[in-house]
Amino acid sequence: MNETMQKYESYIITSFVKAIQPIVIEKASGATVTDVEGRKYIDCFAGISVVNAGHCHPAVVAAAREQMEKLIHCGSYIYYSQPIADLAEKLAQITPGNLKKSFFANSGAEAIEGALKLAKLYTGKHEIIALRGSFHGRTLGTLSVTGNSGRKRRGGPYSPGVAFAPTPYRFRSRAATSDYAQDMEDIIRLSTSGDVAAFIAEPVLGEGGIIVPPLDYFVEIKKVLDRHNILFIADEVQSGFGRTGKMFAIEHYGVEPDILVTAKGIADGFPVAAFTTRDEIASSFQPGDHLSTFGGNPVCCAAALANIEVLERENLCENARLHGKYMMDELKMLQTNFPIIGDVRGLGLMIGIEMIGGPDFKPAPNHAEVIRTSCLKRGVLVGVGGIYGNVVRIQPPLVISKQQIDSVLAVITEAVEVAENTQVAV
Ligand code: PLP
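Above: the input record for the complex with pyridoxal-5'-phosphate. Below: its predicted structure, written as tokens.
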């Protein structure tokens, strides 16, 4: 254990210590991360799906540096500041339909909290519906609407007034979209007191295991919500900013959410988050209803604006679409040789490989862990997630090259072989 690891052990509250990978990262560029010993890794997790434009993109670094030399902080909700105004205008341009006004926060969870509050104020209603298996953050409010009980076994009680709808998880459910729509109708009528302000969902479930709902899912669900005057909050914290091959994943579904929440990929690693909504919804915040000291920080906003311009200029949505398709096709071929791969799924460069024990489809989290460790040893960083902890997550920076993808595929093939030959209790 080196000095950095020892300090972590002594001074940092790391409830995730089991999952921390045993490397100390010193620097990174593009899709490559370098540790303190000079060893390079191809990063297929992008700091949990964050650095979509690549690590330390020069344009983002330059914009942040330039802003930093002028003004780091002023309290962007107390005084006017140019970068927040420019970023808000840009979000109005790139988000779907009539979404226009943004509030800026510092993390995904904080932005989700604000979106939930706004939905309640606008509708005058109080309950929320979320998906089983969903993940929306680690604060008490966001855990309340998180549908993965594994994430909230300890630390409750959570907010009341939350009902959960079934996850459109095609690998483990035969239900059709019409069944989910009927379920939503039933949940509104039978599992709530008819006081539902909003339905919140990730267009592609990230932590839940890269679950891609059927392409007609959100259209049909939105019809039900509209009948009951319930808002749809799209949590694009993980799926936004080109990750799925479009600027926002909800665009694949042809649905305009009432509130769209973003974070992670918005600023290539700078901590900023937002919720964006229509004028009339935004106006239900009265003076004093909502504020954040650091929210709309000028440096973060300047970095975010530069990041979005990079995504556009370098066609990174297209990169995600093309490279994602290539990678999925190759991984699906790999699946035909390995019965421990239950499913390969995703959109763009948001790809999941669901590991199973065998023909009984039993989730195999140990296989996923063996793959993660084997990939690390071979110089590739991948993530692990899923409701059962059995999904290998591939979410690289969108600048990853074809050559790097081929190296990753070779490493994953070896890692799956190792997993298959490792006797594990599943
Ligand atoms: N929503 C989704 C879909 C997420 O994936 C995450 C984090 O992984 C969050 C919300 C919470 O974001 P943060 O960790 O920035 O609070």
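Notes for the reader.
The chain has two domains: 3-53+315-421, 58-313.
The longest strand covers residues 341-347.
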